[in-house]
């Protein structure tokens, strides 16, 4: 008589035939490679080209986000970094939270924080306006036209 024993520390709900963990593993590899490319290009453009770190200020970010390419670039970095980190934390929670109730609440907190960060970050990237029309002139940056 042969008995099959599941791998140790494998949660009961994952012992069936599911590809979720395989897809999560593949996402981590793909998003990691993309993040390396996105982040090193971001660092090169911001710190090496032009005046380097001395040019980084509010005006630099405002000028950069006036270009839709950089908006999408920063959005991809935000989304990939948050989803990559969330997937990693989900794995840590699955490995180390032994009680099902604790695991559930930790994941609820993780997913809530991730959703809020992604939504707020996306809103900031696409609604950023360095020269709001009703702002007081003394509060506007020097590059904004004075009405």
TrEMBL record:
<keyword id="KW-0249">Electron transport</keyword>
<dbReference type="InterPro" id="IPR014312">
    <property type="entry name" value="Succ_DH_anchor"/>
</dbReference>
<dbReference type="GO" id="GO:0016020">
    <property type="term" value="C:membrane"/>
</dbReference>
<keyword id="KW-1133">Transmembrane helix</keyword>
<keyword id="KW-0479">Metal-binding</keyword>
<protein>
    <recommendedName>
        <fullName>Succinate dehydrogenase hydrophobic membrane anchor subunit</fullName>
    </recommendedName>
</protein>
<feature type="transmembrane region" description="Helical">
    <location>
        <begin position="65"/>
        <end position="83"/>
    </location>
</feature>
<feature type="transmembrane region" description="Helical">
    <location>
        <begin position="22"/>
        <end position="45"/>
    </location>
</feature>
<dbReference type="GO" id="GO:0020037">
    <property type="term" value="F:heme binding"/>
</dbReference>
<dbReference type="Pfam" id="PF01127">
    <property type="entry name" value="Sdh_cyt"/>
</dbReference>
<feature type="transmembrane region" description="Helical">
    <location>
        <begin position="104"/>
        <end position="128"/>
    </location>
</feature>
<dbReference type="InterPro" id="IPR000701">
    <property type="entry name" value="SuccDH_FuR_B_TM-su"/>
</dbReference>
<keyword id="KW-0813">Transport</keyword>
<dbReference type="InterPro" id="IPR034804">
    <property type="entry name" value="SQR/QFR_C/D"/>
</dbReference>
<keyword id="KW-0408">Iron</keyword>
<dbReference type="GO" id="GO:0006099">
    <property type="term" value="P:tricarboxylic acid cycle"/>
</dbReference>
<keyword id="KW-0812">Transmembrane</keyword>
<keyword id="KW-0816">Tricarboxylic acid cycle</keyword>
<comment type="pathway">
    <text>Carbohydrate metabolism; tricarboxylic acid cycle.</text>
</comment>
<keyword id="KW-0349">Heme</keyword>
<comment type="function">
    <text>Membrane-anchoring subunit of succinate dehydrogenase (SDH).</text>
</comment>
<dbReference type="GO" id="GO:0046872">
    <property type="term" value="F:metal ion binding"/>
</dbReference>
<keyword id="KW-0472">Membrane</keyword>
């Amino acid at each position: 008589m042969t008995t099959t024993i599941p791998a140790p520390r494998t949660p009961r709900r994952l012992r069936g035939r599911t590809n979720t963990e395989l897809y999560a593993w593949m996402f981590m590899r793909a998003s990691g490679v993309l993040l390396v490319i996105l982040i090193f290009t971001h660092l090169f453009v911001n710190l090496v080209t032009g005046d380097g770190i001395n040019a980084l200020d509010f005006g630099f970010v405002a000028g950069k986000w006036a270009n839709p390419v950089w908006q999408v670039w920063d959005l991809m970095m935000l989304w990939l970094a948050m989803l990559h980190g969330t997937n990693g934390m989900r794995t840590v929670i699955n490995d180390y939270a032994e009680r099902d109730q604790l695991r559930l609440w930790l994941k609820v907190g993780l997913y809530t924080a991730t959703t809020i960060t992604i939504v707020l970050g996306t809103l900031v990237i696409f609604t950023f306006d360095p020269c709001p029309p009703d702002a007081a002139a003394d509060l506007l940056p020097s590059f904004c036209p004075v009405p």
